[in-house]
Design goal:
- Helix content is about 25%, strand content about 35%.
- It is α/β, with parallel strands linked by helices and about 290 residues long.
- The chain has 2 domains: about 80 residues, 2-Layer Sandwich (Alpha-Beta Plaits), CATH 3.30.70.2040; about 160 residues, Vaccinia Virus protein VP39 (Rossmann fold, 3-Layer(aba) Sandwich), CATH 3.40.50.150.
- The strands form 3 sheets. A 7-stranded mixed beta sheet has the order 10-9-8-11-12-14-13, with helices on both faces.
- It is globular.
Length: about 290
């Protein structure tokens, strides 16, 4: 079995009719959405965009079905989105990569001969447009530090999830609940596809940290993003973390290490440990009690 060279997705656009979206979100995930994005319209309307594989699940109601009203929403339109595949040749030549102590990442699309993973957990992450197939130093550093954190039974947030690799690693390590979020809609869709490929129940969202509710929702944060992209969002990240939460920050160039460490300390993170791989550094941090 192999994945299609060009992936097609269906984009469902909904308008919320109620203040709460709990029931709608629960049903979208139950129907197999690949990712959900929440937006606000020019007129102040609250909108939800949900993505599904093509074809749609047969049990998903059509436009005009009264079930949508029961869920507090109106289905406005359904659109087909096709994504061009730029990495087909790379996948044909790529080889499985050991990452951390416990994972083997296979970036190929052909599953006719799956590699022997031994004691490692095999994760199939066919290289698409999303970053994070385990070959980059920052990903390896993040997984390595994640393996030092007791995540079993804890709630984990993966910021900038990309291919989903860190979210999947956390889930495989026993996390009770894992959310992966990425501002790149295509990345979230591909992460959703990867989750299904590996039969992993991870919640994947397209959007920013502002898409999350207020309050201490998570015990562990995984952040593999260039510092300039996350710096302005650090206060918002702190808002969704429980007191004493642990965090892994990767994607940090060694020459920027001191500056990034100061930014993290300014919002309440305390240094626990760090790792380095060539020009890249990753931090293991703890959030001070609020």
């Amino acid at each position: 079995m192999s994945l299609p060279a060009v992936a097609s997705y269906l984009r469902l656009e909904l308008t919320l009719l109620d203040q709460t979206d709990d029931l709608l979100m629960a049903e979208l995930w139950a129907w197999g959405t690949l990712g959900v994005e929440q937006t606000v319209g020019e007129n102040g309307s609250r909108n939800v965009v949900a993505y599904f594989s093509d074809p749609l699940p047969t049990r998903l109601p059509d436009v005009g079905n009264p079930l949508w009203s029961h869920l507090g929403a109106e289905l406005v339109r359904v659109e087909l989105i096709e994504d061009e595949d730029w990495l087909a040749e790379y996948r044909r030549q790529a080889r499985p990569v050991p990452v951390g102590e416990g994972f083997l990442i296979d970036p190929r699309e052909d599953a006719e001969q799956l590699p022997a993973a031994g004691s490692r957990r095999l994760l199939r992450l066919p290289a698409r447009s999303a970053f994070g197939t385990g070959s980059h130093e920052s990903t390896r550093l993040a997984v390595g530090l994640l393996e030092t954190i007791p995540v079993a039974g804890r709630r984990v947030l993966d910021v900038g999830t990309g291919s989903g690799i860190l979210a999947f690693a956390a889930f495989c390590s026993g996390a009770e609940y894992v959310v992966g979020i990425d501002s790149d809609t295509v990345a979230s869709l591909l992460a959703g596809q990867n989750g299904r490929l590996n039969d992993l129940s991870v919640h994947l969202l397209a959007g920013t940290l502002d898409s999350l509710r207020r309050g201490p929702l998570f015990d562990v944060a995984l952040v593999n993003i260039l510092p300039k992209r996350i710096r302005s969002d650090l206060p918002r990240l702190v808002e969704v973390l429980a007191p004493g939460a642990e965090a892994v920050f990767s994607g940090i160039l060694a020459v920027e290490k001191e500056e990034v460490a100061a930014d993290l300390a300014a919002v309440g993170f305390r240094h626990r440990s760090e790792s380095r791989d060539r020009d890249w550094v990753a931090f293991h941090l703890e959030l001070a009690a609020k």
